[in-house]
Amino acid sequence: MFISSQFDGGNIDVLTCERPYNIQVAIRKDNQSDFYQWFYFRLTGAEGEACKIHITNAGKAAYPDGFKSYQAVASYDRTHWFRVDTQFDGEQLVIEHTPATNSIYFAYFAPYSMERHADLIAWASADTRVEYERLGSTLDGRDMDLLIVGEPAAGKKACWIIGRQHPGETMAEWCIEGFLDRLLDEDDPAARELLERAVVYVVPNMNPDGSARGHLRTNAVGSNLNREWQTPSLEKSPEVLCVLEKMHQAGVDFCLDVHGDEALPFNFIAGAEGIPGWNDEKQRQLDFYKQTLMTLNPDFQIEQGYEVDKPGSANLTICTNFIAHTFGCLAMTLEMPFKDTADSPQSHEGWSPARSRHLGASNLQTLLSYLKAF
Q: What pTM did the predictor assign?
């Protein structure tokens, strides 16, 4: 038997892999950071063996509650990911599975590779309605990719969709892929009408370095990008800096920042209620968007989520709060679960790439309804 993780997004350290019933591994920390929770590795040579994989440091991960009532995902072909038996005792996460072949992958959630990201950018850029723009470089020298969909014109809104500030939240890019797939469908009447009303700026991956390195939450030098929006810098957060510079150039009338939440088994939206100047009209816009999305997609709900910030108490280093305050627009954080949705569970796959894509597509119709209403 052998365990490897030296590939795009891989993360695991092997402690022992001699007996299938007592494989012991540990998750590596993000570089220059104490954050860790994302894992992704390959097990070979264990066909037909009843394997027990102990992630020994799970209890001290960034969000240990994220491992409660959680099932890891596995795949033989890296296309179809399914849930496997997983237990958490507060200290170790134990994955039990008998591989059907001599090669199987395990992960915290279905990975979204940098190769797939490159394919997404290439596919979208080939569309005549899309302008590709390279915004700058990451600290590891990777491209910061922007897709501009639609023709700017007087009266059109500038709508931004960004995702994966936290690289381990791969469901964010799956969601944005679903949004783009619908947006570029010439036969979709909602997509056509949206592009008559808006130019859509899409950054599918805000954190390419963290994605490639197998990080949970930070970039190459340990910066949590979603705490860098007030004072981004070339030294710590060039990813935020170049996107924000483009936002100031193009304007922002709407922003959806797409994430995943480790602990909560729900899809929900967090608004910017705590920013200075929040008022009844801003609340009405936020409520409209959430209610519309729930109507269009039953996987989304509005009862569960984060505690709402008290008036004037918003942390303006966070993207949603900073954008809403700086540009005076509706800005929101869309959160999806690493687990399954408690209200609409699907036991075989749990929350999945396919369901993330559908939620992304539903956001297109929701955005159109919002632009028509406001």
A: 0.98
